[in-house]
Amino acid sequence: MRPLRNPVVQALAARLLSGWMKLCFATMRWRHENLDQAEQVWREGGGVIVAFWHSRIALSPAAWPLDRAQPARALISLSPDGQFIARAVARLGFPAIHGSTAKKEAPERAKGGSRALREGLRQLRIGALAVTPDGPRGPDRSMGEGVPLMARMSGRPVLLLGLASSPAIRLSSWDRALIPLPFSKGAVVWELHHYPEDTATGEVAAQWKAALDRVTERAEALVGS
């Protein structure tokens, strides 16, 4: 049996990861860009979709100050790895909605994806929804129509997050997930978008994928990675 399928191992690993993330966030030297766009969203409150690449999940809580921003929930995969990450993120104040924003889901996963869409739209009536467009299975830095569809159906804005840290640990996962190190350099770049009228979701997905790549690369440049 894979270790992460064991609930006890999941709970222990999630506790260790969340503690590590807290230590890193407190000691990292942060640089921010387009913070005014994020502050506008926080002042206005209400629903907002917050999107970042799957490889940056371990950095994402640092971009959402719980004392200033609206309440957030995270859309996490139903896979065992997703459950483990969900527990860690929940310990930092981001309870999970289980599901995926993947392009096409296998029949056995479709129920979870449909439930996630319904609960995600419900969350967007009151607060923020954090999503990884390329999760949980990739390909890395790909975006299907899930995020544009939620934006169109909800009428809520999308805040793209470019996240980076250096030096950092890179895992051998499909997305080469990034784990920050204490006392490293970190960067967050925000970019606010709205769903353009009379535009197909596929076209919007391509535009937002390019924009998310751009802010991620900018964050990497800020930390010199």
Short structural description:
By secondary structure, this protein is of the alpha/beta class. It has helices at 7-27, 35-44, 80-91, 107-123, 146-154, 201-223; strands spanning 29-33, 48-51, 72-76, 96-98, 128-131, 158-170, 178-193.
Write the layout of secondary structure elements.
Layout: H1 7-27, E1 29-33, H2 35-44, E2 48-51, E3 72-76, H3 80-91, E4 96-98, H4 107-123, E5 128-131, H5 146-154, E6 158-170, E7 178-193, H6 201-223
Parallel strand pairs: 1-7, 2-5, 2-6, 3-4, 3-5
Antiparallel strand pairs: 6-7
Helix pairs in contact: 1-3, 5-6
What does this structure look like?
- The chain has 225 residues and is α/β, with parallel strands linked by helices.
- It is built from six helices and seven strands, in the order αβαββαβαβαββα.
- The protein has helices at residues 7-27, 35-44, 80-91, 107-123, 146-154, 201-223, and strands spanning 29-33, 48-51, 72-76, 96-98, 128-131, 158-170, 178-193.
- The protein has a seven-stranded mixed beta sheet with strand order 1-7-6-2-5-3-4.
- The protein is globular, with a radius of gyration of 16 Å.
- The model is unreliable at 103-111 (pLDDT under 50).
